[in-house]
Amino acid sequence: MVQEMARLRRLDAASEEVLAEYNDKFERLREFRKTHRYTIQCTG
After folding, report:
1. Nearest to 41, CA basis, from 2, 5, 21, 33
2. 2-17 burial, b for 16+ CB within 10 Å, e for fewer?
3. Is the torsion defined by CA of 22, 23, 24, 28 positive or negative?
4. Is 0.70 surpassed by the pTM of this model?
5. What's residue 19's pLDDT?
6. Would you list the DSSP string of 17-30?
7. How far apart are CA 40 and CA 10, in angstroms?
8. C-alpha dihedral over 20, 24, 29, 31, to 10 degrees?
9. How far apart are CA 35 and CA 44, in angstroms?
10. CA distance 14 to 6
11. Average confidence (pLDDT) per 10 residues, the chain, 44 residues
C-alpha cells in the first residue's frame, strides 16, 4: 500500500514536470505565432 502511494506520488511529480515543460513550449509557440502574424501583416 505504501509502495503504491510512493509510486503514485512519483508519477504525479513526473506529470507535473511534463505539464510545466509543455506549457512552456506552448507559451513560446503562441508568442512566436503572435509575432509571426504581425510580420506577415507588415510585409503583406
Report:
1. 33
2. eeeeeeeeeeeeeeee
3. positive
4. no
5. 94
6. HHHHHHHHHHHHHH
7. 45
8. 140
9. 14
10. 12
11. 91 93 94 78 62
The grid coordinates listed for 16 are: 507535473
For 34, 35, 36, 37, 38, the CA distances from 43, given in Å and listed in that order, are 15, 12, 11, 10, 9
Q: What's the pLDDT score for residue 43?
A: 62
- Give the pLDDT of residue 4: 93
Question: Cβ–Cβ contacts within 10 Å for residue 39, how many?
Answer: 10
Hunting for cell 502574424 — which residue is that?
A: 37
Residue with cell 505504501: 2
